[in-house]
Structures are given as structure tokens and as C-alpha cells.
Design a protein that fits this description.
The complex is a heterodimer.
Chain A: H1 8-17, H2 25-62, E1 66-68, E2 71-81, E3 84-91, E4 95-101
Antiparallel strand pairs in A: 1-2, 2-3, 3-4
Chain B: H1 3-11, H2 15-36, H3 40-57, H4 67-85, H5 111-119, H6 123-134, H7 139-146, H8 150-167
Helix pairs in contact in B: 1-2, 2-3, 2-4, 3-4, 6-8, 7-8
């Protein structure tokens, strides 16, 4: 019988014509992979957005002084020695300061006067 | 649907366009993958990976050459990656698997017999034969893809062609067909 594969090109041509139908689940798996990628990207975006939000809130609040009833004040505590502190509150028109010592523990606490 | 329109929609991640593209090319690409990876389950794994890549990388297609050719390169790369990962690329003079060989020449139009014969070739011969003769890569490209020398690629191809010629009952012809003579009769 005459062989039909007479040249390499003929072999290439015939092999390139061959088709093989994939199983039905292949398309489903491609879609699952796409969905997974989308979810991963979405979670990365959410994390990035949350970080930006926290950072934004922090930066916005950092510079703001507290104000109420037309007054504004900025409390500050400056440590002078290991066991003492200088607490001050700067009101819109005056500054009150208090020099104190840490009596218990290491946490500095300052009382804010009710009527400055 | 026109191919340019299909590509445009695929870039926009249109699900329907992606499905049309898949239905059009998946049978062709699975046959291509099977030439390198005969196990159906493995070939389908590579097909999933390749189509996933095609869909996410479609916007990088520069319209230089055919879209099919661009996709084919991605698929071939994935095949080679799979073979490399599973240590299935062995370039050498392995013995031909006689159990898979078909002793009789293929009957007219029996492409399946030829496919089985190519499949029985040692891995190195088969990969290089497929890349060079079937996919149309040049020896330089094959050498780069596989990390081998051009001469290794050429010698593996000569061995592969010789085996196929023998299978076709054409052993008496000088086996070393020079490069570029692919249109020549055996």
C-alpha cells in the first residue's frame, strides 16, 4: 500500500490537524482558577485599602487639637527623669503645667482640671 | 466572531468570548500537549494552566504574527515546563520502547499509528522532533528552550527522523536529511 507520509511537511501538516476533545471539567477548572485569582486579588486590595484607611485616620487625627465650646487645648506629657514628668495643657489662651512624680508603676497619668 | 473582536473581548475578560476561544482551540491544543505528555490527566492539567495563562496574558499579545501562533508558544512552554518539573526531559540515546513500537508501516491515513510510533521514541527525540518538524521551531530556538546546544538539537532530530523512516519502511534512504529539506521526499 502506498504510504501517504511522503515528506516531513506532510507529517507536520497531518499531526497539526489532529484534535482531541478535552473532558468537560477542564473548562470548569479554568474558571475555578480564574475565580481563585480574582479572590486573591480582591483580598490583597482589601488589605491594602484597610492599611490606607488606618493610616489616613492616623494622619488626619495626629495634627488635630481637641476643641470644645469654643475652646481648644493640646495636652502633652514630657518625661523629665525616669520617675518624674511634666504635664501641661495648652489652652487657646493659656498654658497650665504640673510637675509630678510617678508614684505607682511606670504609666504616667495626668488629671485634667474640670474648670481650667 | 472575528478574531480581532474576540481578542478585544478577551482582553476585557469577557466570559463568553473566553469560552468561544476555548471551544475553538482547546481540542487543537490538547492534541499538541498530548504529543509531549501522553497521559490524558497530565495533558489536561497543562491545558488548564495554558488557557488560564492565555486569558490573563492576552493583553500582552502584540499582534506580531498570528494569535494562534502566540497561544501555541505559551502552550509549548507550559508543556516543556511540565516535562522539566517532572524530570521527563532526557536527551540521549535511550533505547526505543519496542513494546510500544508498531512493526508494520502505518496504513494510508493512519495518523494514529504514526502518533503512537512517535510517542514510543525516546523522550529527547520525540520532544525535538515535535518542536522542529511539527511546531516549526528552529534549532536555535529549541536550544534556547531546552538549554542545550544547537548540535545536540540537530543530532537528536537526525536520530528521531531515522527511527521514523525505519518505521515507515524507508530505512534504505540516507537518514541524515539536511536542514531545510523538510519538503523533500524521504
Amino acid at each position: 500500500m502506498q504510504n501517504k507520509f511522503t515528506t516531513w511537511n506532510k507529517i507536520s501538516e497531518d499531526l497539526n490537524k489532529v484534535e482531541q476533545v478535552p473532558s468537560d471539567h477542564v473548562w470548569l477548572r479554568i474558571n475555578q482558577k480564574k475565580m481563585k485569582r480574582r479572590l486573591v486579588r480582591l483580598s490583597y486590595s482589601s488589605v491594602a485599602a484597610s492599611i490606607l484607611l488606618v493610616l489616613g485616620i492616623f494622619l488626619l487625627n495626629k495634627e488635630k487639637s481637641i476643641s470644645f465650646s469654643g475652646y481648644s487645648y493640646e495636652p502633652s506629657i514630657e518625661k523629665t527623669e525616669a520617675d518624674s514628668f511634666l504635664a501641661s495643657i495648652t489652652f487657646s489662651n493659656t498654658t497650665l503645667s504640673h510637675y509630678g512624680k510617678v508614684v505607682e508603676g511606670n504609666e504616667i497619668k495626668m488629671l485634667v482640671p474640670k474648670k481650667p | 466572531m472575528e478574531e480581532s473582536k474576540l481578542i478585544e473581548l478577551c482582553i476585557k475578560q469577557d466570559q463568553n468570548a473566553q469560552e468561544i476561544l476555548y471551544k475553538k482551540y482547546a481540542p487543537k491544543f490538547l492534541a499538541l500537549i498530548s504529543r509531549y505528555i501522553p497521559r490524558q490527566a497530565d495533558a489536561e492539567d497543562v491545558l488548564v494552566e495554558s488557557f488560564f495563562k492565555i486569558f490573563i496574558k492576552v493583553d500582552t499579545y502584540k499582534k506580531e504574527g498570528s494569535f494562534e501562533g502566540w497561544m501555541k508558544k505559551l502552550v509549548v512552554n507550559d508543556c516543556l515546563m511540565f516535562l522539566r518539573k517532572n524530570k521527563m526531559i532526557t536527551l540521549g540515546m535511550d533505547a526505543i520502547d519496542q513494546t510500544k513500537m508498531i512493526s508494520q508501516p502505518p496504513l494510508e491515513n493512519d495518523i494514529d499509528a504514526l502518533k503512537r510510533m512517535i510517542d514510543s521514541l525516546p523522550n529527547g527525540y520525540k520532544i525535538i522532533f515535535n518542536l522542529y518538524v511539527v511546531e516549526g521551531f528552529k534549532h536555535k530556538e529549541i536550544a534556547e528552550l531546552l538549554g542545550i546546544s544547537i548540535n545536540t538539537s540537530k543530532s537528536q532530530l537526525i536520530h528521531a527522523k531515522r527511527s521514523i523512516r525505519r518505521f515507515l519502511g524507508l530505512d534504505e534512504v540516507d537518514p541524515a536529511l539536511p536542514e531545510g529539506n523538510d519538503d523533500e521526499e524521504f
